[in-house]
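ok trying this again, last paste got cut off
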Amino acid sequence: MLERLQKIIAHAGIASRRHAEELITSGLVTVNGQTITELGSKADASRDHIKVSGKLLRPASERVYLLLNKPTEVVSTMSDPEGRPSLRDFLQGVSERVYPVGRLEYHSSGLVFLTNDGEIANRMLKSHRLPQTYHLKLKSLLTFAEIEGLGRSTGARISRLRNKEMPWYEVTLSEARQDTLRNKLFQTGHPVEKMRRVGIGKLQLESLAPGRQRALSPAEVGMLSRILDGQVEPIVASRKRSTKSPRQAKHKGSATNKRSGAKRNSGARRKAGASRKSSASSLPRARR
C-alpha cells in the first residue's frame, strides 16, 4: 500500500514525522536506490527498498512506550557528541530503538516519554492538549501579585508546595514553555534552583526512582491517545492549594463566621417568634 514516505519512516520508529521530513529534504532518504527530497512522495513499505542515512528501513516489530525519570546533568537525547551521560545509558534491557518525545533541560530532572511509535510522537509534539506539570524550587518566595503576573504572561498555573522555608511550587503549563517561565522568574529576582517534571498529561512520575524506567500499560497508552483526540480531560485533578495570604484567609474566615452567626441568630428569632405564636394560640379566649 502506498503511503507518504515520512509516515513510513515514522511508523518504523526511526524518527518523528517532523524529523522524517527533515531527513527527506536533506537528501538522506532513498527509495529503490533513488534519492528522494520532495515531501509528499509515496512508497510501499512492503515492497520498496527504503534506506535512511544509508541504513535499510525495517518496520518496528513491536511498539514500545516508556517513562524514564531523568536524573540531573543528563542530556535528553540518545547520544551526546561531548560524551555527557544520555538517556541511552538508562535503558538497559530495551532492545528496540526508541527516542524521546520533547526534551528536558540538562540540569532538570523528571519525566521523559520515549517511544518507537512515530505516529503518536508526532501527535504529542503537535498537541496543545497535553499540559506538563513541574515542581520548582526557587531562590525566594513569590508574592501573590507575582504569581498572578507570571500566570498571565506564561499561561502557567502556579501554587505553593511544602512550607516557606522550602519555596517549592507546582507549575502546570498547557504547552512546553518552561524556558519562558524560567527566564521570567530570573528577571523578577527568583532564579530556579531545581526543576523536576512530574507529569505529562495524566502520566505521572509518582515513585519512579531517578534513572529508572517503566513501560506504559495498554490502558495508559489508550488514555494518552484519547487525550490527544480530545476525548478525555488532559490532567489529573489535584487537590486545590490555597494561594491566599494569612490575612486574606483570616478575613474570609471572619466573614464566614459572621454569615454563620447571622444565620443562627435569624433562625433563633424565627424559632422564638413561632414559639410565642404557639403559646398565644393555646391561651383561652376572653369571654365577651
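PB: full thing came through this time. The chain has two domains: 2-56, 65-228.
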